[in-house]
Amino acid sequence: MECxxxxxxxxxxxxxxxxxxxxxxxxxxxxxxxxxxxxxxCGLYITEExxxxxxxxxxxxxxSQLPDTFxxxxxxxxxxxxxxxxK
Length: 87
Fold this sequence. Notes:
The protein is α+β, with helices and mostly antiparallel strands. The chain has helices at residues 48-60, 72-77; strands at 11-21, 28-39, 43-45, 69-71.
């Protein structure tokens, strides 16, 4: 795997803490331990694919029971919103 910014092969898997504004815009949350990439030249960053995955999880998950700070794993395991309930 190579760095998407500089193209060097000297990258390592890492974790990063980030802040996100929830889709409804009513609050921001800190998501800890998001899978990230560490490049010797560019520093620590989250890939576009992981950014998209976090965005999708924020849209699809029931977050009302989570505090303002939670881990990526807690987000992945959060109950999903039932948009289409079959009766």
